[in-house]
Amino acid sequence: MQSQRNAPRFILPLLLFAAAVFCITLLARYLFDSPSVRPSLSASSLEGLLPSELDTIGIFEAASPAVVFVHNLQNQFDVRTWNVAEVPQGTGSGFLWDREGHIVTNFHVVQGADRLAVTLIDGNTYEARKVGQAPSKDLAVLKIDLLETNVTPLGERVFDSSKILVGQKALAIGNPFGLDHTLTVGNISALGRTMTSIVQDLTIRDMIQTDAAINPGNSGGPLLDSQGRLIGMNTLILRDSTGIGFAVPSNTIRRNVEQIIEFGHPIRLGIGVSVFDDSSFGRIARRLGVSGILLREVYPDSPADKAGLKGTYRDRYGRLVLGDVIQKVEGTSIGSIDDLYHAFDAMKSGQTAEIEYYREGRQETVSIPVERLPE
């Protein structure tokens, strides 16, 4: 009887102890698991928030200082005064890539600019010069004279975009409609999307689809995962849609940005040929009854020339002699200029590509090394 009367005395301390352990566990997880995305807000302002909210706040607090305004300024001639005035053509977003002052943004944000400027989170505006661009990926790299910064560049927190999964959390930061440093949260809705590129006949492949709200002005801003790592660059929304936005994947960003910083342009790979455009070859293909890409020219001393591929030419009587038709690269069917571009874009300089082609009624196969093409 005595032990039964004393039982309630032990229940309350046990409950309090369990609650304390739970709170300490949450605090330890929050403090030590993700130190790079911990919010700098006061403890009183965080009181009562859910762990998921604390994570989101921490990601924004850590990443938003690296997000910038990009100003596209163009010269306009006034026919009334005969003066040339500098006129803002719009703003977009971008993000600090490294501590040397390189800024990554979309090509369409800076397209046609006579002058570029970048405004950082501290309100300071810097003149920016274009280091290089990859229009086919809708990507550009700018440079500002940044002497020193305490901001952690997002180039130091790049995640392998080939490992992201549909359904995981996605956070977009940007400057929609001129409203600076706006956060929207959603999910990865789909992977491997293909969108039309600014460059004719080419597409941007492996795009990330997200339902995190993306609006005009968000272009060029970062798309982050639940650890605050860069997984993409917000680029566009599907016209007349709600909740369907697209981002260039981080692997594409990292590869092209590193090349632009080193060489001033992205590296183009190929075998040294030019081809007929898709519409021109379509008519010829129907006559031949084959699919693929018809070679217009094989450049002298190129890998393709050394491998014996032949371009289209006219014989001494003026008759058109069709060249070889590339049908597969490394086992992947080639049906357009875009297919050929992406087949080589996925390879490395010096790598050997197995080329299957059609010539005079028969299929042939040859191995050709892929090399850097001159700009």
Commentary on this structure:
The protein is α+β, with helices and mostly antiparallel strands and about 375 residues long. The protein has 4 domains: about 1-60, no CATH class; about 65-145, Thrombin, subunit H; about 160-265, Trypsin-like serine proteases (Thrombin, subunit H), CATH 2.40.10; about 270-370, PDZ domain (Pdz3 Domain), CATH 2.30.42. It contains 8 helices and 22 strands. It has helices at about 1-35, 45, 50-65, 105-110, 250-265, 280-290, 305, 335-345, and strands at about 65-80, 85-95, 100-105, 115-120, 125-135, 140-145, 170-175, 180-195, 205-210, 220-225, 230-235, 245-250, 270, 275, 295-300, 315, 320, 325-330, 330-335, 350-360, 360-370, 370. It has a 6-stranded antiparallel barrel. A 6-stranded antiparallel beta barrel has the order 7-8-9-12-11-10. Strands 14, 15, 18, 19, 20 and 21 form a 6-stranded antiparallel β-sheet that branches. The chain is globular and about 90 Å long.
